[in-house]
From TrEMBL:
Family matches, as InterPro entries: Benzoxazolinone_Detox_Enz, MoCF_Sase_C, Pyrv_Knase-like_insert_dom_sf
Protein name: Sulfurase
One Pfam family matching this protein: MOSC
Residue span(s) of domain MOSC: 36-179
MF annotations from Gene Ontology: catalytic activity; molybdenum ion binding; pyridoxal phosphate binding
Gene3D superfamilies linked to this entry: PK beta-barrel domain-like
Length: 228
């Protein structure tokens, strides 16, 4: 279940991670999926193209730049309400940042956000929703839960990746305002289903226009070429 849109929408925590060597990945730089909340403001800016740029947050590390980070995945946001629901299902605490998210929100329907939707966080930063998070084996190893990739995929509430439109500083407690909602129905959740369990939905993603993650646009073109 995604977070509700009622009440005040805000940032609960801003989370960053450092590279660690762990047994569940053989990447030479390890992984920085273990994000922890930080005190005070954090600078947010476009990091550069994927493969070169890392995280959009100062002090945050991206190890596998071929798969993570870059301008279209500069910031990853997860709703605290979704973490709470997973806590109940798994029977264990899940701290802010546990899913590797940079921003943990309260009162915001993150997976129900539209591709191209823009959020103002605090007085300076504007972010634009680009895509949903596709789970990987590193995520499963970090959580230590059996069949985690499958379970996370079945839930269909992946959280959102965002690009930086206006840079600046963010901090815990900042309000989140939706300043633009595009005129289409492609949500993060629909995007996720199209890329994972319901690929027949892929052509619908094109209605999101230029805001659509470039890798998803490539997947759509390949699907249409193959199936018409």
């Amino acid at each position: 279940m995604s977070a509700g849109a009622s009440g005040v929408m805000k940032v609960l925590s801003v989370n960053v991670g450092r590279a660690q060597s762990v047994p569940y990945t053989d990447h030479p730089q390890g992984t920085a999926i273990d994000k922890r909340p930080v005190d005070g403001p954090v600078r947010v800016a476009a990091p550069g193209p994927k493969g070169i740029g890392g995280s959009g947050l100062a002090g945050d590390t991206v190890c596998s730049k071929e798969h993570h980070g870059g301008d279209e995945q500069a910031v990853y946001a997860v709703a605290r309400e979704d973490l709470d629901e997973w806590e109940r299902e798994l029977g264990r605490p899940l701290s802010d940042g546990m899913f590797g998210e940079n921003v943990t929100t309260r009162g915001l329907d993150v997976s129900g956000a539209l591709i191209g939707e823009r959020w103002r966080i605090g007085p300076e930063v504007v972010l634009e929703v680009t895509s949903g998070r596709i789970p990987c084996v590193t995520f499963q190893g970090h959580l230590g839960e059996k069949r985690w990739v499958k379970r996370f995929t079945e839930r269909g509430a992946p959280g959102a990746y965002l690009r930086v439109i206006e840079p600046g500083e963010i901090r815990a407690g900042d309000p989140v305002d939706i300043v633009h909602r595009p005129d289409h129905d492609v949500t993060v959740a629909l995007y996720f289903r199209a890329l994972t369990t319901e690929r027949a939905l892929l052509p619908r993603l094109l209605t999101a226009g230029a805001a659509l993650h470039s890798e998803a646009a490539t997947a759509v073109r390949e699907y249409v070429k193959k199936y018409g």
